[in-house]
Amino acid sequence: MSTVLVTHADSPLGAMLAERLSATEGVDRVLTPADDDALAAGLRRAERVVLLASTGTPVAGADRNSTVPLWIAGLFERAELAGVDHIVAVSSAMVYGAWPNNAVPLTEAAPLRPNPGLGFAVGLAELERRAGEWKRRSGVPLAVLRPAATLLEGETHWLQRAVSPIADLRADDQPPVQFLHPDDLADAVAHALRCRLDGTFNVSPDGWLSGEELRALAGARPRVRLPGRIAAGLAEVRFRAGLSRTSPGILPYVRYPWVVANDRLRSTGWSPSCSSEEAYVLVHRPTRWESMSVQRRQDLALAAAAAFAAAVTAGIVWLVRRIATDARPRRRARHLSWRPRGIAWARSRSRRSLGSLRRGSRPRRGEPSRARR
User: Same domain, yes or no, for 108 and 6?
Assistant: First the structure.
């Protein structure tokens, strides 16, 4: 395989992958460019390229306002001109989108339907489209890997940080989830380079975790169950107010399934070493809540529920008293305003009665007046 260039080597996944490839048989040198000039020089010396499109931040010269960074969009043409004979692009399973009618699991034959609210997934789908056009035109072998959510030890992957705060406010649906260990993803990239894979391959563990199993692993933290629309509105408010770095567009990936099958990559000789449960346990750092005993968590949850119920009851009592207090002055004002009208009406009535007595009684209806008689 000779010289391999790895982009985004400044990210945790990129650094780990570069170290893993350095110890891989057949790799003489691993290049990790830090800027555009180093990238151009590295492409002239490399025979293989690993494009980590789903992690890290773009190198200098990227257009951060575009859906697909310009340096990534032009990387394939530059690699072709430099004589690169194989490219492995690491995308994400998020390009399938998270929808209620998704198959469980999704295969490589499923259409790309990224949720429009998440620009990250939309950008990766656009990148894959451009890569496919380039491959058909150039004929250079291209392997596109679509890994499941990858848990990284130490500095947390941005996707893991994004899902975490919203996951505490679970919506009505609780879909199955997958967690990929970073070692399995690194092995998949090395396997794709070693075997010169060509095509699209899902990278995932065998099987998945249900919502109940994930809550059990996470220590069964108390969660607020919200309807989907309310959860989306709350995520939008938190994001716009600067209280969370989580884009509201990621909420569908918490509500709906997007687990993938790894049968195609397995048929080439690769196999995962960790299940979703093992990846979560090995990488996840337990919080203070998760470190507590079950009895302690139950006591705190009951105390929190009792405090919430007491607060709601006190609020209702205060509201009823406020309404009753506001209503009393209005009833008194209506009573006081009625009395002057009643006295005036009685006085006018008595005056009309005295006037009629002085003039004499009026003839009844149908009777002739005295003048006519």
Answer: yes
